[in-house]
Specification:
The protein is mainly alpha-helical and about 280 residues long. It contains 13 helices and 2 strands, in the order αααααββαααααααα.
Amino acid sequence: MKYESYFKEELARIERMLEDILPAAGQPPLPIHEAMRYAVLSGGKRFRPVLAMAASEAAGGEPADALEPACAIELIHAYSLAHDDLPALDNDDLRRGKPTCHRRFGEAVAILAGDGLLTLAFQVLSQVKPYSKAAMLAAEISTSAGTYGMIGGQVADLTASPVTLTLPMADYISIHKTGKLIKASAVSGGLAAGASRDALTRLNRYGEALGLAFQFVDDLVDGDGYLKLLKASEIRQKVRDLIAVAKREIKIFGRRGQKLQALADDLLKRIPRGKHVAMDR
């Protein structure tokens, strides 16, 4: 399976909506709107929004039912990357082969662009109808993106010492910093489709396993992270085990869960076997 071809329709819908909901580049104040568009539209696999749409289909809805929460999650992901790249955090100069947001627009604008994207995400969620569904989606996504999720994982990463880092600590960081928003993508797709409690539980477990596997693969590609604690062969086995767990959870969806199966299989195929290359997140 070629990811871009298999999810061609979902990716096209996501790109169109992101273009529509982002402020126009010529809309004042120009610097922040240009930076927001740059942070979001500079590439990426759109893994999280595709996951949300696939989960909606698996739970009995249409992929398009999850388009608003899918794009809201992608805006949050883009904001987190713009902030992670800042000198106070990871201090990165490049993202996907291009200058990071703060290198292109300056630190102040990059910070405000991230703030703008986070705020816009919840503006998008407020458009979901009925409002009871919008409230459930906002609760799921905000919790996963906040101090009990992504931000909490980032803080744990900042305070962890490379000397004293343990496997449980690394798992905590990965589950929160990366995994929570991936889990929220799966659950949000189910919520958008009006999934049953059992289906939501299964999507939650699928998302948790997939999120941790994603970070393991990311570290293998980058030659960092878990490789400080585990052998590459051990990490590969952990990925295989987690993907098996994820696929077991969605077996109940049958043919409707094929796209979730495909996302899990694609992650397996992205495990590097030789030279490390940068992963397009």
